[in-house]
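The authors assume throughout that readers already know how a fold can be written as discrete tokens. What matters is that the chain and its backbone geometry are given together, residue for residue. A single example would do more here than another paragraph of explanation. For illustration, here is how one protein appears when written out as sequence plus structure tokens.
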Amino acid sequence: MNKRKYLFFANSATDAVIIDASKVRDLQITAASGSAKISVNYSTDAGGDGSVLLDTTDSYAAARDIQRLISHSSDSVITIADDVNSSYVNGVSACGTITHS
């Protein structure tokens, strides 16, 4: 039986989001001024859209690690980027803008 998984992102103590991993639509890798970023785009239960912009040191490693954790982690809540506690998956260096629906 597969258990549900949730992705946790926080860029401050007052701005955070937990996303149902099954609602992630795509991971969009972009580069701007030599700084690679990943946008985690997702759908909400209310029919809206949201996104989380991540700063990365290696966008491909980060995207692969996020996918691996969604597929294989035994944890229900997976921390992807937490600026409050300085906790990040491989390749992610900071949680940027969180756009709530």
Observations:
- Residues 12 and 84 are 6 Å apart (CA to CA).
- The helical segments are 59-72.
- The chain has a mean pLDDT of 91.
- The two ends are 31 Å apart (CA to CA).
